[in-house]
Each structure stands twice: as C-alpha cells, then as structure tokens.
Amino acid sequence: MNGCDHLVKAAVLTAPNQPIEVQEFPRPEKLEDGAALLKVDLAGICGTDIHLWHGRLKIPYPVIPGHETVGTLEEMGKGLEKDLLGKPLSVGDRIYFASGVDCGRCYYCQIAKEQTRCINRKVYGITLSCKSPPYLFGGHSEYVYLLPKAYLFRVPEDLPTESLVSVGCAAPTIIHGIEVVGVEAGDSVAIQGAGPIGLFALALAKESGASTTVVIDSVKERLEVAREMGADFLINTNDAISPQERVQRVLDLTDGIGADVVLECTGSPNALDDGLLMCRDSGRYLVVGHFTDRGTTAVNPHLITRKQLKIYGSWGMAPRHYYKALKILRTIHRKYHFEKLITHTFSIEKAQEAFETVENRKAVKAVFKP
C-alpha cells in the first residue's frame, strides 16, 4: 500500500439518492504541519446527513458524512500543541471539534463577524470531498483527518462521550439560534420538533427561566423524552389534530395570546404555517431547522405585518458555540441525561441501515461506533 500502513473503513455518499457505500481508504502515513488524526470513538447521524444523502444541498460528492464526532487524538502534525482554549494536547486525549473551517479573512469573518457565512467555509462531513488524499474528512469513519487550523477542544474528563455526541451538532446549532432570537426569564416557548435540536432547545429554555414550554412532534418516543426533560406541555400531531387545533392549543396554554418565542426545529417547510400563528403579536420566531433545502411554503406577508412578528434565521454554528456547548453540558448533563437520547448504535458496515433508521424517524438519536 502506497503512503499508508493500513486501510480505514468509512461510509460514503457517492451521489444523491444512491445506496451508501462502505469503502476503504489509506490511513495517512504523514500529517501536514498543524493537522491531527483522530480515531473515531462515537459519531452522530444528524438529520442533515439524511438530507445530503438525498441531494438537498449542493456538495462535492463523493463525501464521507459525519460532522458531530468525538475521537481519540492518535497523531499530531508538527506545531499542533494546544487546543482552541490553550490547553496542551497529547496523544490519547478525547477531542471534540468544530465542523466548520473558516478563512478568517473574508468580509463575513472580519467585518460582519459571522463565521458561519464565510465565503470560503469548509465543513467536515459536508463540503470536503473524499475524492483526494487525505480522504478522511467525515466522522462516519474509523478515523477522521483534521486540517491545520481546525478548531479543536479537549473534552473535559467529567463529560461523557455519549452525552456530548447525542447533541454534538444540535447543541451548538440551537445555542447559536437562541443567541439570535433570545429567550428570557418568564417567556413562554413553543418548540416545533423534538429531535436533538428541539430537545436541547427545551433544556436551554428551562435553564433560561421560561415560564411555559410546549413541545410539538409526531413521534411518541421523542415526546416522552421531552416529558422526562421537564416539558410543561406536549402536543402529538398524530392525535388527529388539525393545524388549527394545534395553534389553538398553544394559544390556550399561553393565556390566549400565543407564545413569546416559537422555535422551528423540524426542517419541515409546513411548520412555518403553524409557527407564525402560534406566536403572540410582536412575538419572536426562529427558523433553525432548515440547513438544507426542503422546498418552499406559502406565507401571507399580511400576517407578519399585522402581528408585528420578528422572524430570525440561524444557520450552522461557529467555534464559540461549540465552546458554549461544552460549558453548558458540563453543568447540566447529569440533570437532563442527554446520553438517553441515543437509542440506536451502528457499526460503519451498517451505514445503509443506520441512515434508513434515522430517515424513518425510528431513532431519537443514532450513532456510529466504529
């Protein structure tokens, strides 16, 4: 084998809507200066991975998916000595890393201070192809290669890998979203969707002092997790509830005026129809579940004007949101037991089955354990 000492198995998205392949790649023999090689301990399967499988975002196929990963530091390139917080790194450390790599020099990095909109941004498991060496740019693999200047964090010893990976993408994503929309003590909060993003949103709302939390979903198991996490009210959309009834139920639970804040965490365009009506007049609505393009929905502009709604979008996350996720999780993971979100664990060889399980909403959270 040229340039490697053994082969590495990885799940590969070869093209939109094609079967997921398990391929072998050469393990890098020599790292670039400042690069890192992690042996994957646990990697989450995100809803975004399913959308990429179906071509709902333009990406450079073939791609090894997986952007929420914790791994053991196995090799370090010359010059890599500390993590983003200045903590010394050593072989054997558990590592959590920001999925995005920004250029630090464009308008959005330097002027607008919005790293998620960097025009040169690359994302592990999404926009970095496995077509060329060093290949291993996604977490759904036995190893992942981190480029120089990647944002690495040494995982604190008191934070279990399962607790972190269960919300590895969800936590920084909704931390960014709530940073944008704001949730204040005393707010009533309606959460559309009880996947990992919605469930972590629930925890953040509770910790922020929300007076009322309403969680809406169609999967009984997810709603049960929300109940265990302290949701005040649950709405199961499968209980023969029309959109009008769902909206009315939220109004009834919020003194007849609607929620102060509604968080869209579903990735379904139709959620906007309900969500805007669930907001009180002059309320705040966050759209955070649409990282990929799921299509359009009709919205009456008069509704936005008449209700004086404040509508926010939030896309992805920056390194600061990963840092905040680590700090918050260290504080609250024992209270909310995020590790219980993981209901399905797969080997890399079962990649097709794993993706189908997530797509069919049979899992609260599914992960790969190579």
**Mean pLDDT, as a whole number?**
95
What's the helix count? 11
> Per DSSP, what share of the residues sits in E-state strands of 2 or more residues?
25-35%
Task: Fill in the CATH topology of the largest domain.
Answer: Quinone Oxidoreductase, Chain A, domain 1
Largest sheet: 7 strands, mixed
Poorly predicted spans: none
Please identify which CATH superfamily of the largest domain we are dealing with. Medium-chain alcohol dehydrogenases, catalytic domain
Backbone structural class:
alpha/beta
| CATH class category of the largest domain | Alpha Beta
Helix content: 25-40%
N- to C-terminal distance: 22 Å
What is the number of strand segments? 17
CATH architecture of the largest domain: Alpha-Beta Complex
Radius of gyration equals: 21 Å
Gross geometry: globular
Number of domains: 2
Q: What is the element string, with H for helices and E for strands?
A: EEEHEEEHEEEHHEHEHEHEHEHEHEHE
List the helices and strands and how they pair.
Layout: E1 4-12, E2 21-28, E3 36-45, H1 47-53, E4 69-76, E5 94-97, E6 100-101, H2 107-110, E7 122-123, E8 143-146, E9 152-154, H3 161-165, H4 170-181, E10 188-192, H5 196-207, E11 212-217, H6 220-228, E12 233-236, H7 243-253, E13 259-264, H8 271-278, E14 279-287, H9 301-307, E15 310-313, H10 319-336, E16 342-346, H11 351-359, E17 365-368
Parallel strand pairs: 10-11, 10-13, 11-12, 13-14, 14-15, 16-17
Antiparallel strand pairs: 1-2, 3-4, 3-8, 3-17, 4-5, 5-9, 6-7
